[in-house]
Every structure is written in structure tokens, then in C-alpha cells.
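seq:
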Amino acid sequence: MTPHDTALLLGYVGSLFGVVMVVPQIVRILRHPGLRGVSTVSWALSALGCLAWLTYGLRTDSPPQIPGNMALISGAVAVVLLAAADRSRRHRALVLGGIAAGVLAVSWTIPAHLVGYVGFSIGLVSIWPQLYDSVGNWRARANSSVSVSTWVLRVASQVCWLGYAVMASDVPVFVSACVSLTLAVVLVALETAARAPQFARDHSGTELA
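struct:
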């Protein structure tokens, strides 16, 4: 296998982890509907970033960008609407739909090669709101609705993309993967530490999933 083939394989595996990571988060929300802590802002930004990448794939005839981003958009929107939040689901749906329309309008208007930078920029900031909320969960020692399994899969995804970036000499992906990997590791540590006291009290165990 050539270095190019290895880099592509890592990219596809990273994409697979990125798609699968949504599943445990949705499952945890459905199993524990009363728990809070998931940042709907983070997941909304993830959906918008994937929408830009999907448009990029359609405009540049890049098939690998299309199925994964379609699945991620669907999963992220489901999390935004299912997670416990102060705003109603109707309000969240309307706001997300309005912003998504704006992202689509921009993505179909600007030159195609710039659309990737739109997706890159949105994706780079998408994790920060969840990190902020997870710091609050850690301080309160709260058992939140955030799925640790989801963010472990995010770590695995970014490790793969980092390997891809190194082998393909892709600087933007390298920077994005480094930042996302670091923040995801910190988030996993915060959420795990926040739940440790409850695990100690409850021998039956509260799932990390």
C-alpha cells in the first residue's frame, strides 16, 4: 500500500468514526431525557459546518464528502432537537433552519474552492460551546447528558485525520485535527471526572455511554 493509499484509508476511517459518533449521543439523550448538559449550539454548528462541506462536495464533484456529511447533518440536527434545552424544539428548528438557509446561500454563491474554508472555519469553533458547558458540568460534578463514548469516537476520528494530514501534507486539515483532538481529549477528561463521585456512590454504575 502506497503512502497515498494509506492516507486515503485513514481519511475514510476518520469519516466513519465521525458519522458513528452521533449514535451514542442520541441513545444517551433518549435513555436519560431529564439530564441536561449537551450544548445544542455545538451540535448546531456541527450541522452547519457539515452542510458547507456537503455543498463543497456537490460543487466540486467530490463524492466522498457527500454521504458522510449527509449522515452527520441528520444526526446533529436530531441531537439539537432532542436534547433538553431552555428553548422549545420549534424555536430551535426555526433558528437552525434560518441559519442553514443563509449558509446554503453563501455556499452556492461564493467560488467553490472557498466553500471548504467556510466548513473548516465553522467546524473549528463548533466544539467550544460544548467545552464551556462541560467545564460547568465538571465544576458541579454533574452527571450530564453528554455521551463520553461520542467524544471518545471524536478523538479516534481526529487521530485518523491527523495521520491523513501528515501523510498527505495537508496543512488546514492538520491544524483542524490538532485543535479538535486536543479539545475532545479535554472534554472527555472533564465529563469523566464530573461523573466519578456518582460512580463511587452507586455500585450499580451509571453509564458513560
